[in-house]
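Its record is retained below.
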Amino acid sequence: MDLFSIIVLALKIFLVFGAVLTIMIWQTWAERKVIGHMQLRVGPSSDFLGPFGLLAPLADGIKLLTKEDIIPTKADRSVFVLAPLIGMATALAAWATIPFGPQFSIFGREIAMSISSLNIGVLFILALTSVGVYSIVLAGWASNSKYALLGGLRASAQIISYELAMGLSIIVVILMAGSLNLTDIVNAQGGHWYIFTIQGLVAAVIFLVTMVAETNRAPFDMAEAETELVAGFHTEYSGFRFALFFMAEYINMMIVSCMMVILFLGGWNLPFFVVTNPLLGVGIFVAKVFFFLFLFYWLRATLPRLRYNELMKIGWKVLIPITLVNILFTGVMVLLFNKG
């Protein structure tokens, strides 16, 4: 790798992680503001918090950094400390393969709008999201608390069931695109998004449901369920360790939103129009991602939490059978199409 490639890679890492962490910080403000207006409240708004309460996330960060860090006496100290770091590390690592726009040339060199363009980018992200659940499970187990342990067990069962449906829905896209590379999947769609096809629409709806469950967001936030488990897996956490769980959750929301856009909504392309301008492409991509982040807030403000048995029933008895039938249908269609 020459000096130019090293500089480009360093700039990509700085820009991507800088943008991700900045957006993550102000997601907390946006969520409180959106839910507040939906429930006829003002949301963050104070003379001490700047215009429209925009400084509320900074105040939260200072508060969490200065709060006492408590570790229960009988907790497994090393695992207790490691658990939130696993969640944060896997959430950040997943951004390495996500493309944000079309390639462009500079000084005669092709620059990809992603940190790394892996041929198995889909599998890489699925693997990291699978490892991320260990953060919740280990936090619940290491806390030596019954409420936290129940939250961790719920999370493991929930994510196993819904990750199966999520992976099966992605298989439909892989069959249509013929590639595991995220950039190739976007290019294969062009201006004809997969969501405009029957099998793509079914897969997109299933992916939308599973991505809410994967991120432990309402109405599928059974791992936290404050009405039943106090706070679930992070009941015994405080200070900055407590904040790391929420930082990982908001970053994961952004990751699954990016995946939804890439797999089913043509990435940075418009309907029936392929975008080649990198700045326009990034703008379109970010706008689509923000829409799905808004959808997360909307669901939390409107839908009640499901019972745990209802949650598992939807995953195993509804989503997985529908997805298996959809894969069979897609395979037949692709086979017939390839035969002309």
